[in-house]
Amino acid sequence: MPSMSINPKYSKIVQWAKLISVTGFAQIIVQGLGLVSGILIIRLLPTKEYALYTLVNTMLGTMTVLADGGIGAGVMAQGGKVWKDGDKLGEVLVTGLSLRKKFAIGSLLVAVPILFYLLMHNGASTLKATIIVITLIPAFVAALSDSLLEIAPKLHQDINSLQKNQIIVNILRFLMLGSLLISPFAAIAILAAGIPRMWGNLKLKKISAGYANWHAEPNPNIQRQILRGVKRILPGSIYYCVSGQVTIWIISVFGNSTTVAQVGALGRLSMMLSVVSIVFTTLIIPSFSKLPDDKTTLLKNYVKIQFVLIGIGALIVGVAYLFPTQILWLLGKSYGNLGSALVKSILGSCIVLASGIMFGLYTARGWAINPVISVPINVSCIILGILVLKVSTIEGALLYNIFIASAEYLINALYCLIKIIKSSNHT
Is the distance from CB of 95 to CB of 222 less than 8 angstroms? Predict the structure, then answer.
């Protein structure tokens, strides 16, 4: 009997379908737990405490971006070249982690005083602000290393191990949030997020050690390669810190704690987009980084990704538009009158997601926009948005977020396309 041959294209489709289904199912569990945890926090914390929690969460994102500054993208780009060699991959990862620890010091020096001021400006006492800042440390320490620890398993497509770890971390966080029933304070909610992540990182280190030698020494040559990319990416990262969180920053200064809590609660609903984001960062972006430098291949994958993002975004915004009352019910009575703001918030989050994925695609290949070009354009968009829109109101701030996110998406998508077009064709 003749042996049956399997079409290579069909085999590849089946392989990707399995990977995406495994990743997607696990992420439904992970994000489901995350969404339930987030809603639990919204419902259990008083409005003023939730406003403080929102400020801390926003600053944590800013601190993480500043501590990275493009290091993660550089590690992914360098790791994509040597991913089959455990010793060389270990050198890349250890070098990246060493750099990130140094950047973390600068991030803390910049972010902590600003956070302390914003907390007190929004009603926290000196003692409460100090306690909240201290409870932020475990989450920040975990954020320094978890994305780097995931690189080796991602490059080897060891998705199951990563997903199991994420599920356990989210279960632990959910269980720890039960303490809010007794002590409904922002500091408790922050600790409930940070401690499980630190435990999860210990497990991630063991998973990553199966593919990379973490006992390697930092490599000066690799460090120079990573820093070369950081110099190009860091200005954009700083801009991202400002523009990506501008809604919260503006309202925290010009608005009040109730408005901050409303924006934070709406942002929590955008967690549904994390499923899409993690599927892309776990599967698509690492695979894109390993593609040959061939214009036709890169362009074909780029176009597919664009269509997928547009379709997903349209679906999610459509659901928010059709069922605002049902969605806002999840947040409780305090947030039930935000139907129009909900659609704007979800739309802005979808555009931010698409922009971030475009950024991830080209930085994973070692490409970076020249800051001399990107920074003036981005700053001009920020100033123009402030002049044109009434950013002190929740509606105006959300429209401003859509405007800034759209500008970022166009810049990132066009730059990625230009770099692909300039790639060589291999026959």
Answer: yes
pTM of the model: 0.69
The CA distance from 95 to 4, in Å, is 47
Q: Does a structural domain hold residue 77?
A: yes
Provide the residue range defining the domain that includes 161: 22-421
C-alpha span between 247 and 397 (Å, rounded): 5
Cβ pair 222, 92 in contact under 8 A: yes
Report the alpha-carbon distance of residue 349 to residue 344 in Å, rounded. Answer: 9
Compute CA distances 159 → 19, 281, 299, whole Å. Answer: 8, 11, 26
Residue 384 belongs to a domain: yes
Alpha helices in 210-294 (DSSP H): 220-244, 246-254, 257-269, 273-279, 285-289
Overall number of domains in the chain: 1
Per-residue pLDDT averaged across 116-141, rounded?
Answer: 90
pLDDT by residue (tens digit) across 380-426? 887 888 888 877 778 888 888 899 889 889 999 999 899 888 877 65
Q: Do the beta carbons of residue 383 and residue 328 sit within 8 Å?
A: no
Neighbours of 365 (CB within 10 A): 23
- Residue bearing tokens 């538009």: 321
| Sign of the alpha-carbon torsion through 148, 34, 278, 320 | negative
> Highest mean pLDDT: which of 31-35, 93-97, 383-387?
93-97
Residue 275 has which token pair? 């499923």
Residues 228 and 146: their CA atoms lie apart, in Å, by: 23
Locate the DSSP E strands across 260-343: none
In a domain, 14, yes or no: no
Rounded CA-CA distance 190/137 in Å is 9
| Closest of 12, 338, 359, 21 to residue 159, by C-alpha | 21
The amino acid occupying position 98 is: S
What is the Cα 321 distance to its own chain's centre? 25
Around Cβ 13, how many Cβ atoms within 10 Å?
A: 11
Q: What is the separation of C-alpha 154 from the centre of its chain, rounded to a whole number of angstroms?
A: 16
Q: Cα angle at 196 between 191 and 200, to 5 degrees?
A: 150
User: Containing H/E element for 167?
Assistant: helix 159-176
Please check whether residue 23 is in contact with residue 280, taking contact to mean a CB–CB distance below 8 angstroms: no
In a domain, 10, yes or no: no
CA distances from 149 to 143, 167, 225, 291 (A): 10, 16, 19, 22
pLDDT of residue 3: 45
